[in-house]
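FAQ: What does the model actually see?

It sees only this:
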Amino acid sequence: MVVESADGVELLLDVGLDRRVTGSAEVEISAGDGQWSRRQVLVLRHSPSPAELDRALAALKENRRDGVLFVVARAGAALVEAASQDPRVSYAALQDGVVSFLGELHNAEGERSGALPRPGRTSWARLGALRLFALAAEGPMSQSEIARRIGVSHVAVGKQLPLLEPLLERTPDGWTTADRTSCWDRFTTEYPGPRGLATFWTATGEVLDQLERLERAVGKSPSAGLALSGDVAADFYAPWRRPSRITAYVAEQPPLEEHGFAAVRAADATVELRVARDPTILPMSRTWPTADGGGRRYADPLIAAWDLARTPGGDVAPAVERLRDRALREPLWP
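And it is asked to produce this:
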């Protein structure tokens, strides 16, 4: 099992702490007293050393956060001591099922296990370009047009496009591909997931009824945005199975409690909202008109397929294959 920062945030819920996701690597935590503490979320493969703790605390002056939440497999002596003495230091130890917050330990039931991911450097520009060329059937595109469409800088695109040859080809009129299928398959193989932080929710009623309530909640927070993915987006692009779960990307988390949603663990959720670290997801999403004269925004078919593949159900694999075949055969995504 690969553990990401979202697992540390979910552990906060398990131990009884309130949390609000406010960014792809930021969360606000409360012990239930109405006071919120803004924390940077740092995922480490090891428990931090004293020097690493000092650097993280020094950075707080620049990013205006109240403290740091370290997500680790197990907490070492330096981290445990720092958390007991400095309220700015908190941690979620996943294998132990323990959270330290404001000097107090909070325990979840049961032993947890999991391997922390190797962070590495992810080129979102390269992965976004693969999606773009897998989905776009038109002719050559300039470097500037590619950057605009995937939502990253011109410089970042310029560094990555030559690395995608021979899948992509440079022509006098711009970059193009003759093998959209290979672009799709390479993205699927290399994509590490959107990363960032997620919250998980459920409510009464059918999934599509919950979707309407979710859209109303986001309508109260226009800056949150909403791009549907997974089951719901796949049902729009290539209907095959009845949606059982809502997966969506937002720029910030809307107040779902006010609309009848309850925060739950991932396994019990009917709604997953994620503030992604991948900066290309929202720029590459598209809004489609609805029957009522409004619009509904969907992540691109490749992100939808990636999220759909994580959805429980025996008919998920053929649904993913149907979406892939249709997206490569028809212009589903302008």
